[in-house]
Description:
Layout (H helix, E strand, L loop, with lengths): L2 H36 L7 H36 L14 H6 L12
The structure holds zinc ion (ZN).
Zinc ion binds next to loops.
Amino acid sequence: MGTHHAERRLQARLAEVEARIAAQRRLVDGIVESARDANVDDEHDPEGATLAWERQQAAALAAEAETERAGLLAALERVAAGTYGVCEVCGRPIPAARLEVRPGATRCVVHAR
Ligand SMILES: [Zn+2]
């Protein structure tokens, strides 16, 4: 697998993740706004509780996507440094199939957390 290919794939995944973060943030904002418009009470109004739950879910998904983005950015740095696709524990190449699924992987299957 060439470095160029890895970089292109990481960039594509990064664009995807960034779109997901933006979408989740818009969702959070929208939920906050509709809660304000409805003037609901989070604690006592069932609708407020639902909105609070939805807001939490959207925020959790955004946070998850942000973690993935950090992993992808780190992977791009490893591409630049020439260390991409090498297990950080044993130094062996990470199988291409694994990188296909998890382009931000830093460890081989044996040393995966
Ligand atoms: Zn390893």
